[in-house]
Amino acid sequence: MTLEPDQNTGGPRLRLSVVRDTTIVATLIVLGLYAGSAFLIPLTMALLINVLIIALSDRVISMARVPVWLANIAAVTVVLAGLFVIMYILGSQATQFARSISTYETQFDGAVNRVTGLVGNDVTTFIRDNLVSIDMSYVARVLLSSATSLLNQFFLISLYVAFLMAERLAFRKKIQLAAGNPETGAEFTTILDAITDSLQRYVGVKTFISLVTAGISYSVFKALGLEYAETWAVLTFALNFIPSIGSIIAVIFPAMIALVQYETIGPFLIIVFGCGTIQFLIGNFVDPALLGRSLNMSTFLVILALTFWTTVWGLIGAFLSVPLTVCILIIFSHIPALRPVAILMSLDGRLGDDNAPARTQ
């Protein structure tokens, strides 16, 4: 950001015009993100899925020594098939939930009475006053509509992914041509490689961790005979991509269903303490150990990014908050004027290219 000498003190003084222009640009960007969410969200998800496919394709090539085109086809098939299964489970079981919603409404009073023995009459009264008034049929319609919308967007995302994979090799050549000179082209390529590397590690590790967590949780749900166990397992997988609060929500939902479904509180306690312990151990020990310093972001920044992207793009923004913020941090770290901002965004003040040779402005 431009500074000019202060005539009175001799120190640098921030120009008002720079603050004004920066504020205007930032406001326009936020408004553009909000207004263009219907177009930008599927495109952003397609880019992240493309990164996951490339990472899986590279792993197949390194392990099986197969041609690039065959590895790409295998990676695309595995990733898109997995996503389709997720969408199908959510869509089909949301319909079943909508049909059986009246059963849950009649069982709710019994669940509230069981809670009385655990938390007392005051909390029970609060639950009755605030939850009984919820129109569960409306909730079911919203869930069904959301599942249908996700299934529709899946085909659009798949189309984006197909064209991104088709232009994967040509894209780097176009960057060199668009840059105008070799130095600028090399800088763009460096930024792109840094973003791709960080996103591949994040998406790959989080996908593996979420699959393990969802698999263990699904085993617990099936052992208990919990209704819609597949849906809760899929939600556990997806919610683990939301930092901090996602794992908590992934335990609350199936626990509440267990409280309504069963006449005893045993299954409820098993899910709360069993799945909750698994989420705690994986989130606080396994996740940091596997990710390491690949996502060197401030903890406060993670919460701030979660709040911002959720406000702008809703629930999908919560899923995408960390990858999007990683991209912003990397881009800022390669722009000399914005590098101090990237340092403030990092966890320990060190950036990924600190060991690289210093660049001249």
Automatic annotation (TrEMBL):
GO cellular component labels:
membrane
Say yes or no: keyword Transmembrane present: yes
- Cellular localization per UniProt: Membrane
- Which spans are transmembrane here? 24-56, 68-90, 138-166, 208-226, 232-253, 265-286, 306-332
Keywords assigned by UniProt?
Answer: Membrane, Transmembrane, Transmembrane helix
Q: Name one Pfam family in it.
A: AI-2E_transport
BP GO terms, sorted: transmembrane transport
Q: How does this protein lie in the membrane?
A: Multi-pass membrane protein
Q: What is its main location?
A: membrane
In which family does this protein belong, per the annotation?
A: Belongs to the autoinducer-2 exporter (AI-2E) (TC 2.A.86) family.
What protein is this chain from?
Answer: Transport of quorum-sensing signal protein
